[in-house]
Amino acid sequence: MSDQPFYEHHVFFCLNQRKPGERTCCADKGAQAAQEHAKKRIKQLGLAGDGKVRINKAGCLERCEEGPVVVIYPQGTWYTFVDNEDIDEIIDSHIVGGKIVERLKI
């Protein structure tokens, strides 16, 4: 068994949807569209696949009030985002460039 992670970057977008009137949730803040955008962009960049980058959907990651949230492993870096430009910055800086996006880090 290898000590290397299966993916260079494993990215989880919280897509949790709560019932109306419950606490805030990532699904109400555009998380689904952001996850789809990230998945498409990673494929366009040729970064998808075994040993590369995997974009996944996740249930509640329990950082609801800071959301929407995305976490990138194996680093364990948590981000929030507002729009696709933020997602592109996370991809370009963190995933491609290896540099944390401090302004979006939570």
From TrEMBL:
Pfam family, one: 2Fe-2S_thioredx
Cofactors demanded by this protein: FMN
InterPro entries: Thioredoxin-like_sf
Protein name: NAD(P)H-dependent oxidoreductase subunit E
Keywords: Iron, Iron-sulfur, Metal-binding
The keyword Iron appears for this protein: yes
